Amino acid sequence: MKITFLGSGGGRFSAISQRRMTGGFRIDNLGGKNYHIDPGPGALIRTYQFGFDPRNLSGIFVSHAHTDHYNDAEILIEAITRGMTKETGTIFGSTSVLEGYEKWGPCISKYHQSKSQRVILKPGEVNEVNGIKVKGTKTEHGDPAGVGFQIDYNGFKVSYTSDTGYFEELPDYHEGADILIASVLRPGNRTIPGHMCSRNFVDLIEKVKPKVAVMTHLGLKMISNNPVVEAKKISKRTGVKTIAAFDGLSFNVNYNNPKKFRLISLKDVESSMHSTSHALFNSGRRNSYQTSFKNKEFDELSIVKRD
């Protein structure tokens, strides 16, 4: 299994500025299937920029009805279904994404849902599709029907919190996660309603005790504060290897020993052209993988650039 981040930014202002990309992330070769998770603005473009093909997706996951999570879902569905000419693929989504809930959604048209299998995710409910078990996890966020999820493949579990504030039962929903991917919008103790900060992520990690933790969906304050340093602090506090995602981060997962993997920085020759500011883009790249060396972020890992 390979996990690749086609964007590590999140929140409306991060999405508008594109200081970090907002394409979500991919999980490839999960039981022979490939999935795109929360394809926000630019997901299609970033897919090609980092050397992937959206047509080889088996499905998409959309956690809730906010633009930075669902924006490119329909065009990816068109890629999966070969321009809506074939019945194939699976769309996993919250009630708000697929059916609409009060003022939220639906975010994917009935037309775009018509050629694929639909799986509505609800907190605590488990669905078995394509050889994997997917459990919806509760969130406390602006979209009251939004969800995170936990994927279970032969007992190996990958959890994704999506956007949520921290609440007492949150660790229970992600219990047993080998890899815990969380939306961590702000650094330190600077939390806001409906989102986690670094301190909240520490609390979650200490209770879930994953093998590896990844923080993504980074807001402007987190980006400016240096997420690599934040991740290092979290690692030291929790004893769990914690990675700050960056645009183009990719790593293969070893099911038997998930702590051991090599981080790869995928080459993206077009990114500076798509950034609103070349200086901000270059600063962001230094802030993600180059700074990691100075802080010994990858002391038991290795990182390479791939053309």
Describe the structure.
By secondary structure, the chain is of the alpha/beta class. Helix content is 28%, strand content 26%. The chain has 12 helices and 17 strands. It has helices at 12-17, 43-49, 67-70, 73-80, 95-98, 110-113, 170-173, 198-208, 220-225, 227-238, 271-274, 278-294; strands at residues 2-5, 25-30, 33-37, 59-62, 90-93, 117-120, 126-129, 132-138, 147-153, 156-160, 179-186, 196-197, 212-216, 241-244, 249-252, 263-266, 303-306. The chain has a 9-stranded mixed β-sheet with strand order 6-5-4-3-2-1-15-16-17. Strands 7, 8, 9, 10, 11, 12, 13 and 14 form an 8-stranded mixed β-sheet that branches. Helix 2 links the parallel strand 3 (33-37) and strand 4. The two termini are 20 Å apart.
Strand order of the largest sheet: 6-5-4-3-2-1-15-16-17
| Main β-sheet description | 9 strands, mixed
Number of helices: 12
Order of helices and strands: EHEEHEHHEHHEEEEEHEEHEHHEEEHHE
Shape: globular
Tell me the β content: 25-35%
Cα-to-Cα separation, first versus last residue: 20 Å
On the 0 to 100 scale, the average pLDDT is 90
Helix/sheet category: alpha/beta
Low-confidence stretches: 274-278, 295-305
* Helix share bin: 25-40%
What's the gyration radius in Å? 18 Å
The tally of beta strands, per DSSP, is: 17
What's the short version?
The chain has 307 residues and is α/β, with parallel strands linked by helices. The protein is built from 12 helices and 17 strands. It is 28% helix and 26% strand.
